[in-house]
Amino acid sequence: MSIIVRNLLQIQVKLTISNLQKSFISTTCSLLGRDPYSWRTHTCGELRTDHAGEKVTLCGWLRRNRGGKFLILTDTYGSVQLNLTNVASHPEWARLQNAPLESAICVEGLVQSRPSTDISTKLATGEIEVIPENVVFLNEAQSVPFEIRDEKRPNEAVRLRYRYLDLRFPSLQKNLKFRSDFCMKTRQFLAVNNFYEIETPTLFRRTPGGAREFLVPSHLKGKFYSLVQSPQQFKQLLMVGGMDRYFQIARCYRDESTLPQRQPEFTQVDIEMSFVGQRQVLDVIEDMMSFTLPISVRQSVHFPFVRLTYDEAMRTYGSDKPDLRFGWKIKDMSRHFSLKDGETVQCLVLGHVRQRMSNHEIQKITDQFDDITLVKMNTKGAFTSPVFKKWPPNSMQAFVDDLCVTEGDCLLVSIGEWRNACTVLGKARLAYVEALKEKAAHLYDDDAFCFAWIVDFPLFVINDDGKLESAHHPFTAPHPDDAELVYTEPLRCRSQHYDLVLNGEEIGGGSIRIHDSKLQRYILDDVLKEPSSQLEHLLEALSMGCPPHGGIALGLDRLVALLCGAANIRDVIAFPKSFGGKDLLSGAPCAPADAELKYYHIKVEEPQEETTKEG
Questions:
Q1: How many of the other CB atoms lie within 10 Å of CB of 249?
Q2: Which of 17, 74, 173, 390 is at 20 to 30 A from 354, Cα to Cα?
Q3: pTM higher than 0.85, yes or no?
């Protein structure tokens, strides 16, 4: 029996014990006739015809009012109808009939089955209703800015301003419950596999390279902390400390709030392991996903995940985070042409697009991209285009046969350096798929989940200033087959970095780390020209018997959003920031008091307007 299987069986045993405990509590509650941890005996969503004739106590919010005779009471677990048509006359009933929506109340009443003509299929409790006998107003709502109704949902700015009301929408509650369940199962899997959940500091010092960090002032004049953009250094130090396997549901901070689908504070599932290579880290994540994913999702996921090298992904899909839910692969057709050094011919066949889109629509999308030519097949089965007059194929028939095109297909051609040509075709590939989706001509199942590992990334890249920088971060180890290239040709050196991609979105990234202090210092000082003095604490630790280690961080917000089918990550975060990093609920960020600025030795200067001389 494998270690993984044995550990999963241990999980099942623990879950069985947990279920027995839950069963005992449930039985006790049933004997007591109520939930021992609440005023209510039942939730609004659990009542069925089996409960007919029972007296129940419910707590929730008034969500609907149909003429003062039928009210809908809602809580986190569902909704139930209150029938006031035959209740005795009482001042409280009049108050209940006219109470503002979203008022919090507690109702005691009798469950009865509805007549067959009144059964509602819209409610899980649609076969029963509750006849109120007593009511307690817990908090009568003032005028709320919007109703909790999907058909009347306000714009996002209003929803974020009143996020505490927005959270009452069932869709948001469902997303947050999914997130909670996912985290709980993640913890279960990792705990059984001997990972320790360890908290690491949020206040730290600047990390060379990477994203812009938030500064936090201290009472020491001129001294600042940085909010960690990840627990990267700390988890490596934990491996030096012999903790062997670490994980954390970690809060991270990056000043990237002006970018779409980004939050200044976000959450990641952070993992690190000692005495491992790339294969062991990838296997752990796949097994963890197999355990944590809901059955409905897991059934559509292929295990093990597809593994592509960075070069394979770029040459085939024009992206290092390819969407594998549909085909449309890029083909290098350079062998059919006589080209100059460095030139390549990259082609993308768009299958049956002309049957689903007009020529104008097709051309309009193509015109959005430079260096792409749209080529159509003529009635003789050949491609005609000015591009082939400048770069004529050696044999048009061989070219057509090699592409495997059929009538109704379109061809996108890009000529140039292979990486640039493939990248622009990759962007066009996604643009055409989105356009077809808008026309309800989907190329893939919306419920499909296609995971893929991308490996063998470059270790270094050239930045906009023409300088070398780490493709990911400076702690990534070089590929063992390219170790010597670090000293001779660093741009040719591959890394031991790996990304996890889901449906064209990067949801995680990690690497095998550098555990040799001399190599780490060389990369910082000589390759990246970053002062290693800022990382002397880490370099010192690496020199004291640091074990080989590696890990990964999964972006929890983005992963949950994809699994939930949420439109954006804000729909899976309880209190997200708006675009620009603003908290519309509280008004943060805001100006501090002068006394606070003085304590931290900070002076705020307004930018001076530029003056121009008239001449």
A1: 14
A2: 390
A3: yes
